[in-house]
Amino acid sequence: MTLSKTSLNRRSFLKVSALAGGGLFLSVGWLAGCKPGSKEAALGMPEEWFRINGFIRIGENGLITIMSPNPEGGQNVKTGMPMIVAEELDADWSKVVVEQAPLDTDNFTRQFIGGSQAIRMGWNVLRQAGATARQLLVNAAAQTWDVPANEITTESGYVIHTASRKKAHYGEMASLAATLPLPENVQLKDRKDYKIIGTARKNVDAKKIVTGKPLFGVDYKKEGMLYAMIIHPPAHGLRLKSFDASEATGMPGIKDVFQVKSHQDDYERTFFDTTSFTDTVAIVGNSTWEVMNAKKAVKVEWEEFSTYEESRDWNGRKEKRTIPAGLEDEQEQLRKMGIAAKNARTVRKDGNPEDAFRSAAKVIERTYNGPFLAHNCMEPMNFFAHVNGDKVECAGPLQKPELTEQALSSRLGIPIENIHIDMTRLGGGYGRRSYAHWLIEAAVISQKVNAPIKLIYSREDDMTGGIYRPMYQATYRAALDKDNNLIGFHVNAGGLVEPPLYADRFPAGSVENYLAEEWTVASNITVGSFRAPRSNFIAAAEQSFLDEIAEAIGKDPIDFRLELLKKAKENPIGQNNDYDPVRYAGVLELVKEKSNWEQVPAGISRGVSAYFCHNSYAAQVVDLKIENGQVKVEKVVQAVDCGLIINPDAARNLCEGCVVDGIGTAMYGELKFNQGAPDRSNFDRYRMIRMSEAPKVIETYFVESQIEPTGLGEPGYPPVFAALANALYQATGKRLYQQPFAPQLS
Amino acid sequence: MATFNLNINGKTQIVDVDPNTPILWVLRDHLDLVGTKYGCGIAQCGSCTVIMDGNAVRSCSIPVSAAEGTKITTIEGLSEKGDHPVQKAWMEHDVPQCGYCQAGQIMSAVALLDNNPNPSDTDIDNAMNGNICRCGTYVRIKKAIKTAANS
Ligand code: FES
Ligand code: FES
Fold it and tell me: Taking the model in full, what pTM does it have?
């Protein structure tokens, strides 16, 4: 056991608030309307709940509710995080029900999705929450039975005193436990004693999902609720000039049509506030269909805006940015990127790369391009809001509730204490729901019509609304000496509007002479986090390039990478290398073994790739063939090192998703601009991977690890782009430098 | 506005709506059956799939006026207790990630198996290709369909 000082803040340990029966429990949150799932029903609701801390409530009958602090968007944290609490609490998982916590900054920290960090950052807090509660129950038993606390053990929801043969379930001690002082130190379990962590536990919401229960923001309903949609500019570079709603307002079911301003002109934006379209037109009515129809009848005039400056507060650091005027086209964007690349700034330099390239016997140079991508969460952006005087109630799917709450408070002029945000399940996030302008729009609309409303974006509004994965470009150069040693490496990478580079990642640290340069191009097209930001492009470029170098020097692509990693381990070049060469090599070695790398089955083309991001490592081997001009991915074998695994089957599911999503994006994902307008707005033209295009088999292997949990929702995504490209090269003889790949294969 | 008599999940439901209203919005906004999801509105994603007279259809693209006289099953009507073989297989394989597309996936799978109890991989691909899953759960969906077929 490890002794750990309790670091949860005092407010998470409110004294017993004998919550008045199951009724109150059910009234928490908006799911009140839906019947308890079969598990709750079978277990029977307790008469009374005792709140042990912000995370845990225990009923007098032993039923335990564990609050899941973070929003759930498919990463399965709503199962995984409570598993960690339950482990240290020594609870019986079959008597645990999980509830989504609302945004509650007093009780929880870091309630957001992003960067695959929920489990990693929550690890200590969650364990302590469980262990502290367990200790309180032990102390309560000690007092009740008048025996020393250190003679009491716990097991699966029971406190036990063996000597006196006393045993009680947690529910019997809960009311006393909730009144006891907090222990100063708590014991954390040894890993060998884990009974819940590391075992496969089913998704706690599975039943609700497969029976169609209201779980998502779009499903939210409240008495008297109206439906709202917005019209935003059809192109970036335009803003609202005027609108004529005379026809629309007379249409059936329509209550009101008006302008919505999501931020005041002098508002200082922070990281996740977007500048896409501040002024929109809202249509409010009795039903979605009526609003959709009326929307078509609103006549809007748009105008080009002029170049302006915007100031941002990046966590205390102030920055001014110029947002250029104009209606952009792809050709123009590429031209600007070409110019910017020539004026890149150096972000890392080791050795003497200029000399290395001058003296090289051979130089390989390749340029890679990646297009804008839309997130395309299957649940379109939406939010419920009810502004009632100076009280605000909101519910819906979002990734960064804490930050959004501040922006909302500032926009409405209502203090944060008066704002309540319930977090519904997210029908996908992938970064898009970090930019919650729709929540602010919803609240502004509700305030104006003085009624609860649900704002929903149509698919078209969603896909053309900005916040794209940036458009990227990277040029790689490798210098080889006459003996085919890699003596120099140069990457020049940039994007519109953000650069994709991680200069300190592999192969930095493994090449004597290394140069990394980056650049950006300003644009009025808004970009944002997209599953594995930056890595989602740069991994594809870098890992395709390494494949090409390996081929040029006649080395096996895995051996080539392992040799570089060996150098990085034994004799690292430069400072700040941002990866662990041992863990990196570990996934390559594991994938090599599990894929049977050297024995390529007849008719199969094979490619490999590996990458490090979000503190984890992933390597993939893609096996494919081309049949009647169609790419058939027969099998993907992947090795992942994300530290300790909480819920292995759920982890595997997430890694499989990374592979499918990555292959789909690499093959088909793209969005271009004509005169500032996206060239596609729905799934008829924005191609998404479908069942017949998904790999037939995906095998996922985890490196056995003693390290604390690291990221999982993203690390498997970036490398698969290149594993696919490298396999396609084996199949077609054609290197792919431009995403998406599919248009180049026909 | 007009009145429509609908047979949904074995129950008669009367709604008074614009005849062009897609079945999807009648279900979601007027009948509180929100299990059927909106994803694209143009019959491209399958989120809104329901079973109409035995076939999987995209409820976003069929007006309510075409629904009278038909029998419609939604995800809520598949089983009383969530124990339809397809639902059970979905839970056994822990298919969902975000879960948003899954009601549509399940309805497509149910219609497939009702019409073809032992589908081949190609049959499954053909029946399921209209259902997009951005989370990428296709491999598990296929496994779950096979499990359900064998049960
Ligand atoms: S919402 Fe009907 S197919 Fe997409
Ligand atoms: S599970 Fe998320 S879209 Fe399918």
Answer: 0.93
